[in-house]
Amino acid sequence: LPVVIYGDLDGEPGITADDAKALAEHLMRARTFTGAFLEAADVNRDGNVDGEDLLLLLRSLQGDYAISQKG
Predict the structure, then answer these.
(1) pLDDT at 11 (0 to 100)
(2) What is the pTM of this model?
(3) Which of 23, 35, 46, 67 is deepest in the core (most CB within 10 A)?
(4) Distance CA 3, CA 61 (A)
């Protein structure tokens, strides 16, 4: 089973600016997430991957928001 780390969209250790870039590319339809990566992109877990998820991911990189990993 894949492990989902919310906000980690490139599979590399940690949540970084590369993850925010990947999410922005997905939102602009320049990249497509599926499976566990699509689930990880739904940072706020509301069932939609959208600009709010990108905003929260960017806020987490600035230290203004903690992405919950609890189910």
Answers:
(1) 87
(2) 0.94
(3) 23
(4) 21
